[in-house]
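Chapter review. Work through the record for Tripartite-type tricarboxylate transporter receptor subunit TctC before attempting the end-of-chapter questions.
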Amino acid sequence: MMRSILAAALAAGFTLATVPASAQQFPSRPVTVVVPFAAGGPTDTVARSVAAGMEKALGQSVIVENKPGAGGTLGADNVAKAAPDGYRVLVWHIGMSTSPALYRRLSFDPLKDFEYVGLINDVPMTLLVRPSHPSKNLAELVTWAKANTDKATLANAGLGAASHLCGLMFQQAIGTQLVTVPYKGTAPALADLMGNQVDVLCDQTTNTTPQIKGGRVRALALTAPSRLASLPDVPTAAEAGLKGFELGIWHGMYAPKGTPKPVLDKLVSAMQAALASPEVKNRFAELGSVIYPVAQQTPEALQKHLKAEIDKWGPVIRKAGVYAD
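Structure tokens for Tripartite-type tricarboxylate transporter receptor subunit TctC:
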């Protein structure tokens, strides 16, 4: 019995010894959250809210760094190639699952080059038209779009952006191709919509809610199964007559492959603590964003969800024939 106890103690000591001291002491300096888009966009809003909550749990500053470019893949590649020590993580949306189909020469593998922290939130999209648009509801917009395919303009924030994906789904749902107008981000696309320079834009509620409430754009439909308390007057697409047009833009947190499990566990715990905080809950509720249940705020849930989303979006994107080198 004594030999067994001694052997167990030695084994436990060996296990601890194999964990680097830096991992045991994590974090001993600020943690950086990389957002692969410009500041002020919907993903940036999500990341900054979560980062502020994580600071309390980690006892260290959590800095948000914006690294826009190439539809989000530039920032993702930066984190994939970072030191696997937990001090550099990524917050990215559904683009992590669409990038394999959109980019022929992707510099990272979403399923092999990252450790998973967990799912954060799901954000529905709003289908918007310019303030002076003649369509007052979704049925009128579909009729108008079919009659004006040569001049009906559909804005998006660039290849792979949430607005781009939503636009693809909308065109497939109504069986009509519109004139797409890509921008270098959501802000300029939304600005031109408000200025009556383009006709239609589909974007996340985290970005559009203030403009809808302020009357600067007209919302015709929501890509969610039910209405939002923050936008009670905006019908779902199904209510407006377009069944099956549902899309949620989910966000997840990732760390470089090889990040030690003790470090990853602390990141998971800190993210979950942030999402449980009243400040983050209230902020997300104001913007129509739904926080995932705790059971899905885990590495295993994110990995499973990412794989399913890659399988889902691949055929949609290939059918649309869009890609980038």
